[in-house]
Amino acid sequence: LWDYINLGLYNCAPFILMIIFNSGVIYHLIHRRQARVIQNSNIQHRAISITLVLTTFLFLIMTIPATIVAAFFFTTPTTTLMKILDSALYTYHITSFPLYFITFGVFRRECIMMITCKNNTQRIAPTLPTIAPSNIPN
């Protein structure tokens, strides 16, 4: 019984939520990219979309097999197959860092600066909208 609850709470529910929310983010990014204001921005639409799809796919192939095998096929989790599947399951949780490090240049630069103890001297300042002078005579 606990294996079925684990399968539902640990695998199925998060996978469904990942599909729903990641699809929503990708859909939003595609529509925002078509907007003229966002086309010239520094948002990495393709990198974000690829990362979301990869994260969901890795979750599917690395966590669900171990839970399905434990719930439906084995009563004792001491087999070699279970050890391999458990290793894949727990390895999934550390894949985000390398994936983000490879995919996102800004993340990579910040990590390197943090490791080398360099301060980020770059400041982000808000930009004010330019107001066109009115053509109304005084």
TrEMBL record:
SUPFAM superfamilies to which the protein is assigned, alphabetical: Family A G protein-coupled receptor-like
Keywords tagged on the record: Membrane, Transmembrane, Transmembrane helix
Keyword Transmembrane helix: yes
Coiled coil: none
Positions of transmembrane segments: 12-30, 50-75, 87-107
Keyword Transmembrane helix set for record: yes
Protein's name according to its UniProt entry: G-protein coupled receptors family 1 profile domain-containing protein
